[in-house]
TrEMBL record:
Residues 6-238 form the ABC transporter domain. One of its GO terms (molecular function) is ATP binding. It comes from Terrihabitans soli. The lineage of its organism: Bacteria, Pseudomonadati, Pseudomonadota, Alphaproteobacteria, Hyphomicrobiales. InterPro entries: AAA+_ATPase (IPR003593), ABC_branched_ATPase_LivF/BraG (IPR030660), ABC_transporter-like_ATP-bd (IPR003439), ABC_transporter-like_CS (IPR017871), BCAA_Transport_ATP-bd_LivF (IPR052156), P-loop_NTPase (IPR027417). Belongs to the ABC transporter superfamily. This is ABC transporter ATP-binding protein. GO terms for biological process: L-amino acid transport.
């Protein structure tokens, strides 16, 4: 198998003296959707933010396409076309939908702006209807669509999705996950998704990792993790 697009090797991350990640190893290959599941507070979002350089890994290394990015500033990591749709959406509430998307396109430049705009509007037609509306007045589901669309405007080689289903109605969750699957199948987009909703994440992903208290405890093909008794008992009851 070819070298992974993203490789996290032995990463330890701290908040002050509190260790949040302990020796984390993960790999994401080109064209894959990889899910990281775990309970609230397991360290999933910390790993996502560590990949983006804030907070920094205290030890270990993060390799993207053969380049060590462990100590790069966040803006330089973004220039490598690693895009994040963060937990809690964090759109610009006073800016319109269009202005939010323009902010997302800064890394990619203007050459393909109209083409990329049409691409995200095809994925999320609701955003086209709301193009002049302030981000802060959108529904939760529309804000999540906007956060993902803003990330896509940078033409990412790796899309990082942090809790995209959080607080959303099941129908909206399905629309968002269908859009992610379509991007992967049609364009080969590589996706690393962090999710509390283990069932949806593992149904979407090719491979998965389970995190408990800042450590990776299980990994493997998603279909195998879905049938593991310890995964079903901890994360899938009632799914």
């Amino acid at each position: 198998m070819s070298a992974p697009l993203l490789s996290v090797r032995g990463v330890h991350t701290y908040y002050g003296n509190i260790r949040a990640l302990e020796g984390v190893d993960i790999e994401v290959h080109r064209g894959e959707i990889v899910a990281l599941i775990g309970s609230n507070g397991a360290g999933k979002s910390t790993l996502m933010m560590t990949i983006c350089g804030n907070p920094r890994a205290r030890s270990g290394e993060i390799i993207f396409d053969g380049q060590n990015i462990t100590n790069l500033p966040t803006h330089e990591i973004a220039r490598l076309h690693i895009a994040q749709s963060p937990e809690g959406r964090r759109i610009f509430p006073r800016m319109s939908v269009l202005e939010n998307l323009q902010m997302g396109s800064v890394v990619a430049g203007d050459a393909h702006f109209e083409e990329d705009l049409e691409r995200v509007f095809t994925l999320f037609p609701r955003l086209k209807e709301r193009i002049g509306q302030r981000g802060g007045t959108l529904s939760g589901g529309e804000q999540q669509m906007l956060a993902i669309a803003r990330a896509l405007m940078s033409r990412p080689r790796l899309l990082l999705l942090d809790e995209p289903s959080l607080g959303l109605a099941p129908l909206i969750v399905k629309q968002i996950f269908d859009a992610i699957r379509a991007l992967n199948e049609r364009e080969g987009l590589t996706v690393f998704i962090v999710e509390q909703n283990a069932y949806h994440a593992l149904k979407l992903a090719h491979r998965g990792y389970v995190m408990v208290n800042g450590k990776i405890t299980l990994s493997g093909p998603s279909k195998d993790l879905l049938t593991r008794e310890e995964v079903r008992a901890a994360y899938l009851e009632g799914a």
